[in-house]
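Annex B. Sample input.
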Amino acid sequence: MTVIKQADFIQSVQDALQHISYYHPVDYITALGEAYKLEQGPAAKDAIAQILTNSRMCAEGHRPICQDTGIVVVFLKVGMNVQWDATMSVTEMVNEGVRRAYLQPDNVLRASIVADPAFTRKNTRDNTPAVVHYDIVPGDTVEVKLSAKGGGSENKSRFAMLNPSDSLVDWVIKTVPTMGSGWCPPGIIGIGIGGTAEKAMVMAKESLMDHIDMAQLKARGPKTKIEELRIELFDKINALGIGAQGLGGLSTVLDVKICDYPTHAASKPVALIPNCAATRHAHFTLDGSGAVQLPVPNLKDWPDVTWAPDRNAKPVNLDTLTPAEIQKWKAGDRLLLNGKLLTGRDAAHKKIADLFAAGESLPASVDFTNRVIYYVGPVDPVRDEVVGPAGPTTASRMDKFTEMMLAKTGLIGMVGKSERGPVGLEAIRKHKAVYLMAVGGAAYLVAKAIRKSRVVAFQELGMEAIYEFEVANMPVTVAVDSEGNNVHESGPKEWQEKIRALPVLT
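Annex B, continued. Sample output.
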């Protein structure tokens, strides 16, 4: 009978979460490297180069791939012959491993989990609790699959209860464009078919931890109907032309994974969950011999890609920026930001809205006049860092606050990731402001452009406080210019037409 010690289980979870915070799975890097070689869209190719460069930097520096270090999801297969040498429950041991991993001093990870989600949404400060799924199986080992799932991609999850005769392919191809690019493509689409509503969602989530094998599958040809479906969806999703970061291009997904389960004769539940550019998961088995040590990937596994700023990128002095200057920028322009910008995301915007609603002013330390705001919640710094990884968060979540910010604060520009929604776009057009896009999944690379950082307001919000960053050559793209021209509309439309003309996809 196998005896699993509490200390070994906790240590294994802790080490695995640290490991996946800075090491991409090699299969993902390989697939992304191939996508980079094939990509023809300049903006998409630049974005993929940033993601690959960031990935190698994180592997070398042992710092998080993305500032959003995720919500921990664990799938356990517990052998029925296993005996536990423990005083904690298994869920408590998982959470202790999470707590230790996220508070590890040499690589602090961002605490993103809030309790009381419907009301106070107070941060738990250690990223607990995890979401744990159990399967009790024959055997004398404990198999563990865990991931750290980013909020941007999780928020794009979709579910439908189709009629039995409805086309799953039609639903997926209609649904993917509605997800926008906040899930940071190119990534992986996980699909669960059958069971019940919750079973379909769990299957879709677990499928994202499977090995990327689309290239091998297409090379040998499908052997089952599910494999045929995977290939069909892969080709048709990429033919949408959404591309890296939604900028338009050849690669939107690197793989499509599908799990299915018997269902009621009247039902056809279908779940779709995307995985982002910060794909993070680990698999290991505990057999009673001690804590698990995951293999360390070889840096030679990373493609020989090093991002450098576009030679035509325009330097911008944020400290002297004026409304007249931003009106000269055009959608698609590459910029290098220099000087001071303020940060703020969901909680900070809500606090500002509450202040205005109460007839109060902004804190004296915050002045947005002719300034740019960066939608970010950075990781805490370690060692000699000014700030930890600090990539952009999904900008559309701030759309409902955009009119307020542009009308009442003097703000003239915003930096985030992915597209803006109709409400945000209308406010940008109305006030002749601009929206700039930074690459999601390149948080450590972006952080290297931040030379100084200090909290200027709402310190109690932790990573959601308002910071002032001083940046040097921070790379961004004008996603929406002051006339309302929008690269997230024009880019995919252009590339969808180009892909239709390619012989291999017609």
